Amino acid sequence: QVQMVESGGGLAQPGGSLRLSCAASGFTVSSYFMSWARQAPGKGLEWVSGISSDGTETSYADSVKGRFTISRDNAKNTLYLQMNSLKPEDTALYYCAKKKSPFGKIDSIYEYDYWGQGTQVTVSS
Fold first, then answer.
1. Predicted local distance difference test score (pLDDT) of residue 39
2. Nearest residue to 68 via CA among 57, 52, 81
């Protein structure tokens, strides 16, 4: 069955870096548009970044553009999110997600049908 397991979260200082991983099984990540989303304490789920099935297109929310980089390793069937220049407002539970189809808005959480369990990122001095 479809399963996604995130890892790599933790505590980072402002200005620091973390790399999140999302190991997928039960499907091939290179066959789907994949995204990262996050949920900060007391807030709703926010789309963060996405990568097309062929890897040629990446997209980012304005809040992380220039600081985060999404990538994929097809051989490992794993999605990554490199997070640099972290800010306290990046503190959230981060999820990877598989998009249902090639259609629909990439930044709408309703377009995704499978989610991982999340990994906590805390940015604090």
1. 98
2. 81
